[in-house]
Amino acid sequence: MNRNVFWLLLWMPWICGAQQEDILAVDRVLTEWHQAAADADFEAYFGHMAPESVFIGTDASENWNKEEFMAFSKPYFDNGKAWSFSAVERHIYFSEDGQTAWFDELLDTWMQLCRGSGVAVRTEGGWKIAHYVLSLTIPNEKVEGAIALKREKDSITLRSLRALLPKH
Fold first, then answer.
1. In this structure, are strands 126-136 and 49-56 parallel, antiparallel, or unpaired?
2. Does residue 28 surpass a pLDDT of 50?
3. How many Cβ atoms are within 10 Å of 66's Cβ, its own excluded?
4. What mean pLDDT comes out for the span 84-99?
5. Which of 73, 61, 54 is nearest to 118 (CA)?
6. Dihedral, CA atoms, 93, 35, 55, 135, nearest 10 degrees?
7. Which of 55, 53, 50 is nearest to 72 (CA)?
8. Based on C-alpha coordinates, what's the Rg of the chain?
9. Contact, 114 vs 58, CB < 8 A?
10. CA-CA distance, 99 to 19, in Å (whole number)?
11. Are 42 and 80 in contact (CB under 8 A)?
């Protein structure tokens, strides 16, 4: 038997077990994070986010660092009504060194089906969400209608953003 194959077979159960533990840990962080929002638990919700985290919402203007997202969200949490998202499908992947995970999930929300995707990082305090993107899902056969709904605001936003680009 090839020596490399022997070592791989010897260590495979440990490697698979370690990755399974990490999958469960990241899954738990995401589930607890969504539950904290549903429970309007501000400290628990933002405690699952890394200090340098970014949250990107469904509106083109929603690109917040953690402090900005906390300021935006605080009134909702203080009111006892944040948001309630629950994953109905989730995929988790890891970097080769096991220190970074990326994920995507389909969510049952008040907006109907949404997609969340992001990055989690391993920290001394466990896994933390470093980047999260929330997107509306639109069936392909309904895209034209969605484009029509957002055309005016998108045109204004695009003009503003293009005005900031360097001129060549």
1. parallel
2. yes
3. 17
4. 96
5. 54
6. 70
7. 55
8. 20
9. yes
10. 11
11. no
For 7, the token pair is: 């070592």
Fold of 3-139: Nuclear Transport Factor 2; Chain: A, (3.10.450)
Residues 6+ apart with CB under 8 A from 142: none
Gap between the Cα atoms of 98 and 19, Å rounded: 8
Q: Which residues pair with 140 in a beta bridge?
A: none
% of the chain residues with pLDDT over 70: 89
What is the tens place of the pLDDT at every residue in 71-84?
Answer: 999 999 999 999 99
Helices (H), the chain: 3-38, 42-47, 66-78, 143-164
> How far apart are the C-alpha atoms of 48 and 109, rounded to whole Å?
20
- Per-residue confidence at 18, pLDDT binned at 50, 70, 90? low
Cα–Cα dist 135/69, whole Å:
16
Contact 115, 104 (CB under 8 A): yes
